[in-house]
Prior knowledge:
Chain A is an alpha+beta fold.
Amino acid sequence: MTEQDRTGRCADxxxxxxxxxxxAATLGGTGFSLIExxxxxxxxxxxxxxxxxGLLIDTQKCASGCDACVSACNTEHNLxxxxxxxxxxxxxxxxxxxxxxxxxxxxLPMLCQHCEDPPCVDVCPTGASFRRxxxxxxxxxxxxxxxxxxxVACPYKARSFVHENLSRQKPWSPRGKGxxxxxxxxxxxxxxxxxxxxxxxxxxEGGGAMTFGDMLDADSAISLRLKSEPSRQIREDLDLNxxxxxxxx
Amino acid sequence: MRAFLAAFVMTGLLTGVSxxxxxxxxxxxxxxxxxxxxxxxxxxxxxxxxxxxxTMRQGLRTIRHSLVECVACHVQADTSGKAxxxxxxDQFCAxxxxxxxxKMDCFQCHATIPDDSAGHAGATDSSIPESVKALMNRxxxxx
Lengths: 249, 143
């Protein structure tokens, strides 16, 4: 089914591209895509499959000691330190990849890859794990029963389980004991035309390694970069068509 | 006996008798709630249940029945100006729920006080498409 779906979706996106052509022209190829996001969806509009949110991470610009994205995520969603790292929620984490032969090390952030064919959604027995029309993979905690199949199924270890009662949650980020959670691409921000917290922090305090945008809009910064520069999906052998792509890894 | 008392209190609530006679329910900030008070008393749980799915599944952020907005409007401040959790005893949600013995689980996950820092889109956009308005009004009784 996937090939046909993808083709169909791309054909649909042609119309969107036409509609946005004028807007894109006025943007004049701005490197940063805040304005582009703002035109993507008004808060009163439902998420649409004419958009697919994606993130490109240039690992060459991702410094080994920098964790600006991780702390921004923890602050945005109030992922507090429980004092026991084993059970701390991790929506985004930094990895060091070392080539054992040469000793060359890469540093990169790992988070939910927002797959087009997400294994977490396949295995969820209640339908709580789902993929929003615009490609963002989420957990509906109203229906999550905490079985944790999705945690096992995810090849990226991108999901966390809340083990203890919480307080001080943020209004835009409800979290509770007994449910699974993971990166939401900051839907509350994206729906309001803003960038995810990690992307903003990487741009402001980090190395500017992240480019966020609509992968179906040919004129978006991320599409232009994906077209002109080589990039990879992690575990591309699984054919999940991830929404997070890496460069120089 | 408890059932009788619960029914007694509910009758008072549902028939719109002045709330001060029965329970001391803190008032919201504005003049008028998002729906008439009589409707909100009976149907707020339906509104929340329905509209949560619109936001969660479809990303609609301008829904009229938003738990975040309930909290923002009905939260009280203590003498030092600090917000009191809305589910604390004698606060807006707890007054009735404690009186009738109905347990809420909303606040196991949802924030009990507003957060003024930027991040939430808020229900301010007036340009809600008709199709969405129809969905939102699904639970509202015809006048």
